[in-house]
Amino acid sequence: MADPFAALVALLARLEDELPYVTVDDVCDRWEPAEQRTACAALITEAIADRRLFTDLRQRLNAETGARTPVRLVRLNRLHPQVEGLL
Q1: What is the domain range of residue 75?
Q2: pTM of the predicted model, to two decimals?
Q3: SS3 track for 36-70
Q4: Does residue 87 form part of some domain?
């Protein structure tokens, strides 16, 4: 993969258009090559630290059981110069 961050931006931009919200798992489950899922999570963590991505912690409700599980949402910081140049 030539530029993993460019691939992340392209994937996340598409997912933001398709899904009501995007979790780290949503991104990494679709990461190519699939064998590099751990690298995807590390790249997201780095991009959050650099403020190229925004993040929020929420809880997902299982309607059948009433159980709540924590999820980390991510979205592009479209005003960050390194993101803006890839959109």
Answers
A1: 4-81
A2: 0.88
A3: HHHHHHHHHHHHHHCCCEEEEEEEEECCCCCCEEE
A4: no
